[in-house]
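Ops channel
N.P.: pipeline sanity check, posting one input/output pair.
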C-alpha cells in the first residue's frame, strides 16, 4: 500500500514538530512536579497543554490537509487529549 504525496508530507510534518511539543510539555510537567503540585493536577495541566499545543500545530496546516483521514484522526486525538486533561484536572481525585 503506497502513501500519496500529501500523506507523506503530513507524516514528515508531524515527525518533525511533535517531538518539540513533547519536550516542551514534558518540561512543564517536570516543573510542576518540582513545585510540589499534586500529581493529578500536574498530569491534568500537562495533558491539556500537550493536547492544546498539538491542536495548534494541526490548525496551522488545516488548509492543506483537512481532507485527509489521518489529519482528521490526529485532530480528534488532540481534542481527546485536551478533554482527558480536563477530566484529570477536575475529577482525578
Amino acid at each position: 500500500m503506497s502513501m500519496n504525496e500529501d500523506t507523506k508530507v503530513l507524516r514528515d510534518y508531524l515527525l518533525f514538530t511533535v517531538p518539540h511539543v513533547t519536550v516542551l510539555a514534558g518540561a512543564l510537567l517536570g516543573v510542576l512536579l518540582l513545585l510540589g503540585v499534586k500529581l493529578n493536577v500536574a498530569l491534568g495541566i500537562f495533558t491539556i497543554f500537550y493536547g492544546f499545543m498539538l491542536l495548534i500545530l494541526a490548525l496551522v496546516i488545516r488548509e492543506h490537509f483537512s481532507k485527509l483521514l489521518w489529519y482528521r484522526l490526529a485532530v480528534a486525538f488532540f481534542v481527546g487529549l485536551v478533554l482527558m486533561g480536563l477530566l484529570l484536572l477536575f475529577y482525578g481525585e
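N.P.: looks fine end to end. The chain is about 85% helix and 0% strand.
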